[in-house]
């Protein structure tokens, strides 16, 4: 065991065993909502659809399950009580929408289980159907996501934002999501070690009794976006008793291999990776633009390399689609694939 690691919960190892040793996470959520016609030019971003078009939220969840996802993330990344209140909703309405994000994801899973067909279920050699395990992860975006100014891609919140500020901001939201019926909480796109520490302390203080994962984002393959060491950040995640996986999301694919190796230096917990398409987010223009450096056209070809490096949960983030997830699922399920040798 890595020095300093806490005793691991069997939750994720048991789940990975049921899935065949690896698991597939879903892909870009807002990308799909926009493809279906949703206008997300709003501080609530994808969470806006919890109000305006919950049927689209359910459809996107189901599309990802049908594509092979074992874990779907709720539309709560940018859903905060403070954000809803700023749009005129009451505290009770805001809390209800957080719970609704989990309910919709669970509804999609129930639909999948209810209409399990040869196209959407795994089939054994004897031709009988085997329902693929599917978990619902309640997404928690960073404080920077709430600000809706792109600061989750810099991690620079300024001196006015303290550890207490972050814990107070996230506390009620985490309490609600932990008791919403989700299988676990996904703390995503964590940009700095201060926010990681806030999450870790909240899990302890509130005695959160469902598992969680921590995933960080990086723009150089060495540090998280704030410049804090990925080793320090992953160590904070590793210290949490409820944390069952540690990894990277919304990061260019070309940086993932090195980051997996770094994370593995400080934790024995399963490593989760779900990169973006390799494009760069322009906070001023509020859109994704092609990177000036190497452009990763298709990171599915890297899956074997990432698995060898030590990752065991794979998916996609911004600008990836159900086709991406379907391709990842096929690569991982092809035991004879040279890329996995």
UniProtKB/TrEMBL annotation:
Residues 11-332 form the Hcy-binding domain. One of its GO terms (molecular function) is S-adenosylmethionine-homocysteine S-methyltransferase activity. InterPro entries: BHMT-like, HCY_dom, HCY_dom_sf, Hcy_S-methyltransferase. Keywords: Metal-binding, Methyltransferase, Transferase, Zinc. Zn(2+) binds at residues 250, 317-318. Its cofactor is Zn(2+). Coiled coil: none annotated. The keyword Zinc applies. The keyword Methyltransferase applies. One of its GO terms (biological process) is S-methylmethionine cycle. NCBIfam families: PRK09485.1. This is Hcy-binding domain-containing protein. It comes from Dipteronia dyeriana. The lineage of its organism: Eukaryota, Viridiplantae, Streptophyta, Embryophyta, Tracheophyta.
């Amino acid at each position: 065991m890595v020095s300093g690691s806490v005793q691991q919960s069997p939750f994720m190892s048991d789940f990975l065993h049921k899935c065949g040793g690896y698991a597939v996470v879903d892909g870009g959520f807002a990308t799909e909502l926009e493809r279906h016609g949703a206008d997300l030019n709003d501080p609530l971003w994808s969470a806006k659809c919890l109000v305006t078009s919950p049927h689209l939220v359910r459809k996107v969840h189901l599309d990802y399950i049908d594509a092979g996802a074992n874990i779907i993330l709720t539309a709560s990344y940018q859903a905060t009580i403070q954000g809803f209140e700023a749009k005129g909703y009451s505290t009770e309405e805001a809390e209800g929408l957080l719970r609704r994000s989990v309910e919709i994801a669970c509804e999609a899973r129930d639909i999948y289980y209810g209409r399990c067909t040869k196209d959407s279920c795994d089939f054994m050699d004897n031709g009988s159907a085997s329902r693929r395990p599917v978990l619902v992860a309640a997404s928690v975006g960073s404080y920077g996501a709430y600000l809706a100014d792109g600061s989750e891609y810099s991690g620079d919140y300024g001196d006015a934002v303290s550890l207490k500020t972050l814990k107070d901001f996230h506390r009620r939201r985490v309490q609600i999501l932990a008791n919403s019926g989700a299988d676990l909480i996904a703390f995503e796109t964590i940009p700095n070690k201060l926010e990681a520490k806030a999450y870790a302390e909240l899990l302890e203080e509130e005695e959160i009794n469902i598992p969680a994962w921590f995933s960080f984002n990086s723009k150089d393959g060495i540090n998280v976006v704030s410049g804090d060491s990925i080793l320090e950040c992953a160590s904070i995640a590793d210290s949490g008793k409820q944390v069952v996986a540690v990894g990277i999301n919304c990061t260019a694919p070309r940086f993932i291999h090195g980051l997996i190796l770094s994370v593995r230096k400080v934790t024995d917990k399963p490593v989760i990776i779900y990169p973006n398409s390799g494009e760069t987010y322009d906070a001023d223009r509020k859109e994704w633009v092609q990177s000036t450096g190497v452009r990763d056209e298709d990171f599915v070809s890297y899956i074997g390399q990432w698995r060898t490096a030590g990752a065991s949960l794979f998916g996609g983030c911004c600008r990836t689609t159900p086709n991406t997830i379907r391709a990842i699922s096929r690569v991982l399920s092809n035991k004879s694939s040279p890329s996995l040798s």
